Each structure stands twice: as structure tokens, then as C-alpha cells.
User: What shape does this take?
Amino acid sequence: MPQICEKCIVPDTFPNVVFHEGICGFCLDYEPIQIDPKKHIVKGKDKLIELLRKNQESEYDCIVPVSGGKESTYILYYMANDLKLNPLAYTVDNGFVNEHARNNIENVCNKFGIDLVRMKTTKFRDSMIKESLYISKYMNRYWWGICGEVCRNNFRTGAIKLATEKKIPYLIWGHTADEPVPEAYGEEKLYTEFGNKKFLQLIKEYLVSYHIILYGRSVIDALKILWHKMKYDYYVVRDSVKTDAPGGYRKYFPFHEVSMKDDRVKSVFFFNYIEYEPFKFIDILRKEINWSSPENRENKMDCNLHSFQNMDFYLRTNITKDGFYYSNQVRKGIIDRDKGMLKEEATINSCTEETKRIFEHYGIPFEEMDTNFAVERERKIKKIF
Assistant: This one.
């Protein structure tokens, strides 16, 4: 059994962590982040409403992409309740949206009479998930492609197209650096890094992906993985073309990331204006719209595919990806250690069941994963590049 930090919930099996007298290095080195007020200014409600009320061309003041999680649901609620605006809600249904998330979206839209546009993902997205499961099976680890960039691309592509069609000038996003997701960037990085990769960088990432999954395999396993990876890449490109993803020639690359920066519509980052207080949001939403989540799983619960990221992280480190986020919350004093342990236990149990159900949904026999060998292989390959 791994040793668990006495202050947070990080295990001693976490890569490169050092323990001293029962305390992990994260806690020993922890100091509250000193935010530079010149670089991080919460502009406030007045500035936000001043910006959004400039729109006179559309019946809608803005579009709020909503997943049913705490941040996006709160943003939609805030636009209608606090700012008295008329937002258009937009969501993407990939077939694996959690029932709690579906209900949360319906509840907030029904309460305030908010129009909702729901986009179904293409048949190619479903094929990609199936190929990802086969790749995971033969790699003996939960491969990131199951819940990778494509879902985010679908959200961004659809939202930009909808805003353009209806002449709505603003998209309201809820990205925050407090969330442990690839999107947890500031506004500058979201604009400059996503969607602007050069040709050679896209080629390099494409080749590295094949090295990582094929290196050190038996000939038979390598051929199986290669076949399913090529099919996966094909479906990614077909999905980008079918949805007409922005980015010009980049949409013909499997690693294309749709940028939030678009000349046709302005992306507004909600938490540049309103302070990020997740547990306050949850309390308000539960009271006002009966917002719900699986027990002790308020974080990233909107899509069941997220369970694969959690399980991959857990099998490599003995803590889930969400659990590492909870450890940060414990360290900051937002929740206590016992609450963090309960949330982590709930995450492990529910994600274990969710991954099995998804394998069964596609008729692929589920086998327990052992990722240690795969992770070591990945480290060696990344050193080469």
C-alpha cells in the first residue's frame, strides 16, 4: 500500500515526489501564489455588462457554451439572473454526457427561458472513440485519444459557427487556471497556442504519436495498434472536415486544435471579470436550479469519457487526475483532507465502473490495465524528441 501524505492526499508513488516525516514535497514546498495585480485583474460585473450590452444586431447578447458542469452552468445562470441578459446556450452531445449534466442544462434553461442549441457529434466521433478503445486495449493503458482534443474542437467549432450565423458577437468561456485540464491556460495562451501550430510542428507531433504507441511492442501488437491508430486519425480528419473546423489546412491534421481567436466573434473569458469561487457557485446552483452531480464528484463530471483520463492517471500514480486537483484544494484550505479522501474514493469507484461500461457499449472485452511499462516507454520516446 502506498504511503499517503498526512497533510493532503498525494501518495508516495507519485512521480518524483519526495516525502519527509510523512509529508509530501508538494506540501513542504507549498506557498500561496502571489498574484501580480498588474497581470491578473478581475475587471468586475460592471465592465462585463458594459461590454456585452454593446451588441445591437442580434436578439441574443452572447453565446454560452455549456456542459452542465459547475462553471459553465453558473456562467449561464449569471448571464440571465445577475446581468438580466438574453444568452443563447450551446452544448455538444457526444453520447456520453452524464445524466446529471443533462438535467443541469435543462434546469437552468427552463428556469430563465433560455434558448438551447444542442449539437450532436458526427458518426466519425463515435468511430474515433471505438478505435481509441482498441488502441488502449493493445497498448495496455488508457490512451488519451478517447477524450482528447476533438471534443473541445467540436465545442469551439460549433460555437463559432453558431455565433457567426446569428450575428452574435460574443462567446463566453469559463476556462480557469484552477482547473486541472489541458484548457487551463490564460487568455493569451488560449489565443496564441491553440490553432496556430506550424506545418512542421504538426508533422512532428504526428510522428511522435506513432513512436510512443509502437515502440517496444511485439510485431503482432504493433500491427494491431498501427491499424487502429491509422483509422483513428482518418476519423479525426473526417470529423474536422464534416464540422468545417476553422484553421484552414490544419483541419487535415489529426492534431489540429481549434483556436478561440476568430475574427468573426470575440471570446470573452468570464473569470477575467468575475472571481472564481467554485464552491460558492455550487451552493448557489443547488439552491436556485437544483444543480446536481454524482456524490462527491463535482469536478469534471459532465462527460463519462473523462473517467479514462482519471483511470490512466490513477494507474500510473495511485491518484486520479481529479484527486490531484483535490490535493491542491486541501493544500489551499478550500476543503479538508477527509473531504478530499472521500472525493478521491468516489472518483476511483465511479470511474472504474464507467470505463468498463464504455468498453461493453462498444462490444470490446474489458481487461485490467497495467500502465507502468507503457509510461516508461513514453518517457524514453519523448527524450528522443
